[in-house]
């Protein structure tokens, strides 16, 4: 049975999450399918920024470190984020970048193994992991030298064989940034730990998009960003979670003053905070940090079960419509079809993927492109409508059918592509 | 001859920098002498934040990484900041926190020595350095183990003796956060380098407050924050400078994707950017980062020579008035009197310094307190008036004379003190 646009409109009318779209400021004439890269603007963010800037900074000045709760904000936001990733209170801080936070937890994992199993010096990850994760692991391994190294697998099936008795830690991204493929976090964590290694999860493409249960999975460490599905704003600070069983012995070398037990005692020796403060390092960018709350507040109006249900409905619809309407063109689904094996994005490969994505953007359908040949489309259930999916596929079909992607301007690459 | 308030008012009328105060939003009834901790709000910042949030993020969405120049912003702001610290174009990036940036340059310095003088494993610094600098150095030394360690001196005079042939790097803060004492950067850099070590300068308390000439001094590395005298906003991103002679071989372990030669090629191996991009790590908080420009723009309306002249006039006046009006009380000048030995802050010690600072704040005179017993007063020439100095001292005198600081609420400590 062919799906029509009126069918999609009906689904929007029936959508229990439909009302949440009003909490975002979305530009006219745009179908935004790139919330997996940069989430859209929550309607409260502009006012919150004004409050932080004019009231807290302008009027409160230095007093706002106490009076406006700036110093406590990484912890407060961590507590607000925690339920979305299956973490408890006092387990998460929002701070620094995903890359820096990965450095912290990788160093902590290697430090842990050095105490308990010093022969374990290998970091296992995937060649298809998001590059910054691999670069940070390389940076730490090169710094440590002395046998520390990275071992990359080419496919998830290779993980068991890679988990030899020299492995200290496995670093996996829950939902792959290119393909949208999702790991079974609980199963893989068990596998990693049974092999004597620690498990670090990068949640950048899953937090806010799919239910995550870190404590349920018994994971060791997790990090992720807040500017994708969590709608925290461009480059908004990232987060760190550490399993409570590691908290008291957690040690990391980015031991800046915000991680100190008594930061304002100005003692010359570092003594880590007794709690999660030890995951912090330096002074945080308050305006950007404060906006993380506006994104998280919207999640308070629903739950991850409802979000996941709509996410799967949107992505199923997108796959079905593309396969129905674009069957004449070399468009290949890269994302796994099975629900339990994918996140909230759908990737299609096309030899001219780059130019097609630019042509889509010119028509107001914003997805993005990742090498090689991957057209990525992210579906944020908080603001994406079923009719948007229908319209996006209609425009894709038209671009493919007319060949309108083949213009010089659509082949030109900017600094960020 | 006794200085009167009308004398101070006349100095304000004659002040060539007097007009710059209008570029700041300062609260009524406040004399703000804490710009050395958190700079005041530039009048343009609120509008700039709205532009970034509603136009660039809200409307531009993901396209703003190219179209609004987000990806290039750390370099562009670095170029704008460079003249204030005696750096050239393409030498500075604004990014991350001071603590993270210190970790990068310390690691780079140790890496450099490992190639050239592998027996040099000691980091020399001062016990009175800002604690986060010491904590970061400890964190890196502990991570590396293998003989790497921190050697602390108790006074600047001890530096020559500490610079033995095992020293890899000396890490000094140009202007001391507690005392306001300033090093002769050129002389100390020469001393450090003559001993075979590398020189790292922390400019957090000097950039924007005193003329700094990194290239003139031949320093090796520098880092600093933008939220003090540079008025970038609470926790605004920090900066890194590396002497061009080290640029091509600079290596640091926080090797996130923003430091890669081709970040969007998504290659699994880290290859550092050929230029200053290699000092970057992860995705930056764009709203906070963009506001750094508003602070820097104001410096474009004057120059560091004029700023320094007014800074010395303000601090001389403050010292003179305190010594004149508060001579009956146990208030001791901690800051060196000589112009070439101090920055733009004046610190006085008093056994009840904490309570006195709280009493001053309650009266609208905002300075701050640092253990032990130090009352700090920062003088930002861009917005501080000579009459403010007179009024601040009059209020200090009254608080001391009446003993009004001795109330329970002035002894109570918040999280941040």
UniProtKB/TrEMBL annotation, chains A, B:
Gene Ontology cellular component annotations, sorted alphabetically: cytoplasm
Keyword Hydrolase tagged: yes
Protein keywords: Hydrolase, Pyridine nucleotide biosynthesis, Pyridoxal phosphate
Domain of life: Bacteria
EC class: hydrolase
The protein's Enzyme Commission number: 3.7.1.3
Residues given in the record as pyridoxal 5'-phosphate binding sites: 98-99, 130-133, 173, 202, 205, 227, 257, 283
Keyword check for Iron: no
Cofactor: pyridoxal 5'-phosphate
Pfam families on file: KYNU_C (PF22580)
Family: Belongs to the kynureninase family.
Protein role: Catalyzes the cleavage of L-kynurenine (L-Kyn) and L-3-hydroxykynurenine (L-3OHKyn) into anthranilic acid (AA) and 3-hydroxyanthranilic acid (3-OHAA), respectively.
Subunit structure: Homodimer.
Entry protein name: Kynureninase
High-level lineage: Bacteria, Pseudomonadati, Pseudomonadota, Betaproteobacteria, Burkholderiales
């Amino acid at each position: 049975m062919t799906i029509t646009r009126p069918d999609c409109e009906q689904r929007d009318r029936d959508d229990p999450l439909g009302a949440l779209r009003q909490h975002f400021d979305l530009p006219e004439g745009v179908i935004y399918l790139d919330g997996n890269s940069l989430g859209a603007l929550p309607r409260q963010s502009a006012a919150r920024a004004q409050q932080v800037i004019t009231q807290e900074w302008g009027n409160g000045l230095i007093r706002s470190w106490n009076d406006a709760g700036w110093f406590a904000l990484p912890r407060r936001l961590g507590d607000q984020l925690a339920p979305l990733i299956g973490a408890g209170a006092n387990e998460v801080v929002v701070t620094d970048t995903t890359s820096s936070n990965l450095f912290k937890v990788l160093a902590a994992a290697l430090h842990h193994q050095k105490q308990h199993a010093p022969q374990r010096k290998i970091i296992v990850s995937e060649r298809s992991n998001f590059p910054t994760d691999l670069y940070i692991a390389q940076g730490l391994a090169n710094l440590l030298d002395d046998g520390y190294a990275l071992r990359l697998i080419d496919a998830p099936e290779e993980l068991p064989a890679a988990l030899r008795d020299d492995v200290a830690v496995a670093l996996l991204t829950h939902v792959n940034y290119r393909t949208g493929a999702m790991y079974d976090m609980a199963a893989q964590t068990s596998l990693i730990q049974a092999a004597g290694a620690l498990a670090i999860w990068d949640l950048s493409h899953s937090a806010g998009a799919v239910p995550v249960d870190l404590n349920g999975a018994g994971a060791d460490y997790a990090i992720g960003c807040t500017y994708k599905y969590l709608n925290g704003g461009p480059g908004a600070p990232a987060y760190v979670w550490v399993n409570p069983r590691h908290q008291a012995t957690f040690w990391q070398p980015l031991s800046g003053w915000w991680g100190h037990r008594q930061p304002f005692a100005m003692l010359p020796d570092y003594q880590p905070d007794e709690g999660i403060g030890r995951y912090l390092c330096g002074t945080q960018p308050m305006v950007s940090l404060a906006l993380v709350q506006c994104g998280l507040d919207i999640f308070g109006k629903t739950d991850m079960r409802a979000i996941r249900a709509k996410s799967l409905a949107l992505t199923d619809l997108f796959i079905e419509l593309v396969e129905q309407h674009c069957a004449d063109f070399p468009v290949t689904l890269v994302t796994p079809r099975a629900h339990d094996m994918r996140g909230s994005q759908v990737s299609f490969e096309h030899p001219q993927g780059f130019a097609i994505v630019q042509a889509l953007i010119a028509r107001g359908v914003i997805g993005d492109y990742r090498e090689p040949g991957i057209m990525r489309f992210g579906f944020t259930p908080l603001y994406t409508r079923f009719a948007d999916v229908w319209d996006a596929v209609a425009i894709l079909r038209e671009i493919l059918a007319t060949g309108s992607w083949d213009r010089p301007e659509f082949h030109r690459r900017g600094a960020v592509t």
